Amino acid sequence: AQKITQTQPGMFVQEKEAVTLDCTYDTSDQSYGLFWYKQPSSGEMIFLIYQGSYDEQNATEGRYSLNFQKARKSANLVISASQLGDSAMYFCAMRGMDSSYKLIFGSGTRLLVRP
Amino acid sequence: SAVISQKPSRDICQRGTSLTIQCQVDSQVTMMFWYRQQPGQSLTLIATANQGSEATYESGFVIDKFPISRPNLTFSTLTVSNMSPEDSSIYLCSVAGQSYGYTFGSGTRLTVV
Fold first, then answer.
1. Of A21, A38, A45, which to mutate for an interface test with B (greatest number of B Cβ within 10 Å)?
2. Chain A residues close to B104, C-beta within 8 Å
3. Is A53 left (phi over 0), alpha (psi -120 to 50) or beta?
4. Chunked in runs of 10, what are the mean pLDDT values of chain A (115 residues)?
């Protein structure tokens, strides 16, 4: 069975500073994918970044980067230069590379950016 | 990436009634997924809907309570049956994207009174 753990229910960060949101996972699959999503108060799910288990380089997308440590089974999201608009819920998710393609989510971290 | 139109965006329903949620995708997709997000919680997968076959339900979810229709490769419906206040949640549909990201509908905020 697959499991995603996010241990930080809430985080604060000062505007323009960097913040790391933690995510650990557990799976018996050799091949899998890791995702981060942002959910603002409007409720929409916004895809941020993806990391494949065989990718050697950490994924980056603009101000978002994923600190992937395979041996430790962690996939932390780093947001650089935080903006007020980054205040939202952040979910880590995983998909095993079996035929089901289903995405399993962690419990989420609520990030609040302070001006 | 695919664009999903989800309807209704919100509804308030009486207990004991049923609500059908629709998702229309602008391209053909093999699998569609239905999630429930209870207040203040994460997303929980209800079922995977494949065209031409019965939906695959996750543990804790049954077809009698959450019947799913998938008549073609661009459309699916989820019905929440015999509703109780505990069914008050956001319901979202999703499809797998070509560039690894999954696209989600805008969600249906359901309140059962």
1. A45
2. 44-45
3. alpha
4. 93 97 93 94 93 92 96 97 97 83 94 97
